[in-house]
Amino acid sequence: MDRRSQEYQIMRDKALSQLRSGESLTGKDGAFAPLLKEFLEAALDGEMAAHLDEAERRQGNKRNGRGSKRVKTMAGEIEIETPQDRHSSFTPEILRKRETILADNMSSKIISLYGMGMSLRDISAHIEEMYDVEISHNTLSEIIERIVPKVKEWQSRPLESMYTIVWLDAMHYKVKDGGRTESRAVYNVLAVNKDGRKELIRMYVSESEGANFWLSVLTDLKARGMKDVLIACIDNLTGFAEAIATIFPQVIIQSCIVHQIRNSLKYIASKDKKEFMDDLKTVYQAPTLDLAELNLDKLEDKWVQKYPVVIGSWRRNWDKLSAYFAYDEHIRRLIYTTNAVEGFYRQARKVTKTKGVFPNDMALMKLLYLAVLNISKKWTQPLPNWALTAGQLRIKFGERMPMEL
């Protein structure tokens, strides 16, 4: 038996043994690990041969021995002999200079784990356990940092010219700022396009939630190509509706009923809450606008003396609170509350709950961006009963709601 046959026999026996015992065939001590080393070194030699063409040799360039580098791969950490040239002008593609982690699939794996809310320490432990590779905290940080340009590109991508429904709301996180822990509002714009598909069209980070900042958000959306919005669902933030109307003057505003109810109950005594809610349900659950307004009159007659602030709030905001009565059940369920965007929040917080305080705004945005990528994988189909919804929107808004027949 010649030497090559003996080597093959040894590798085969080792592979069978590792396969039976459940050990990794491609890990640091795996039977197939030498094949990867051999392949990489042969590929580097091939690249060097192509680099030292006739023009290079005329300039006096030639091979100049070998160096070595340790490379982390999905098959474990291996040591590679790297060819060198006299002019140091060789720039290999398969294993670039100063590259210590091979294969984008490992980077993708690391970024995916980070997007699931895992800490860098947990990711390091997971990679070592699964692939027999030790990766430092600094290296992991460098890999995660690669998504920053993608975040910025996503934030500025072009938008469709028209969205049927948008929900605008904010969630809040803690961020380090100059050594102090500060609160940050993450402004979210969740939209439904003309085909009935949901899309988170932007996230913005600011120190606080306010109508002035929302105005800048809406201005940015218009600059990115959004020209029209049919219905905007918002909370009852002062000046919010007016800010939207300055950018999209034809929009129908629907204030969130759930926000209004929560704010009202803050001022209702505990002993009255059940009775008050029973009366209030006859208002916002009424089948028609006329009946809702009749029941609102009854609510006022019964409770205005005891809770004038609450009744006054419903009266002042009634035009924005009652817009959904113009539609049937399918559209009402979509727009009477900002629950659609709050559903996104619940999924996002599953990812961010392990991060008590973020080191900076971009660290917060990176993780939320990755969360959006994962969550939006489920948004491939139109909303339920979209054909009926789209037909009603067409009747209500005419040519502003394009439909292909």
UniProtKB/TrEMBL annotation:
Pfam families with a match to the protein in the record: Transposase_mut (PF00872)
Domain of life: Bacteria
Entry keywords, A to Z: DNA recombination, DNA-binding, Transposable element, Transposition
InterPro entries named among the record's database cross-references: Transposase_mutator
Signal peptide from the UniProt entry: none
Keyword hit for DNA-binding: yes
A GO molecular-function annotation: transposase activity
GO BP of this protein: DNA transposition
Described purpose of this protein according to its UniProt entry: Required for the transposition of the insertion element.
NCBIfam families: transpos_IS256
Assigned protein family: Belongs to the transposase mutator family.
Protein name: Mutator family transposase
Annotated source species: Mucinivorans hirudinis
